Amino acid sequence: MLSATCFHAQQSVEKALKAVLTARRASFPRTHNLEELGLLVADTGIDLPAPSEDLRRLTPFAVDFRYDEETVAPMCCAIIVC
User: Fold this and answer.
1) CA separation for the pair 74, 76 (Å, rounded)
2) What b/e readout covers 60-73, taking b as 16+ CB neighbours within 10 angstroms?
3) In this predicted model, what pLDDT tens digit does every residue of 47-81 receive, in sequence order?
4) pTM
5) Which of 32, 44, 55, 72 is most exposed by smallest CB count within 10 Å?
């Protein structure tokens, strides 16, 4: 269940970043890389509410979130606690 939660968190952040870029009429590549998208948003003059490291931690959940819970929990919970 934690894997699915992290997957949906990643998807939410990705869609939000892409929405901001679209609203700013900024072009962006077809990517799931949250850190890359975050840098593009920052380039438009908007400060991100989370550090790049948090974005980097969520990125792997975009494609494959079927890790065992022992691997997922430390990565995901570190973000949730912040």
Assistant:
1) 6
2) bbbeebebeeeebe
3) 998 898 889 999 988 876 554 455 555 555 555 54
4) 0.75
5) 44
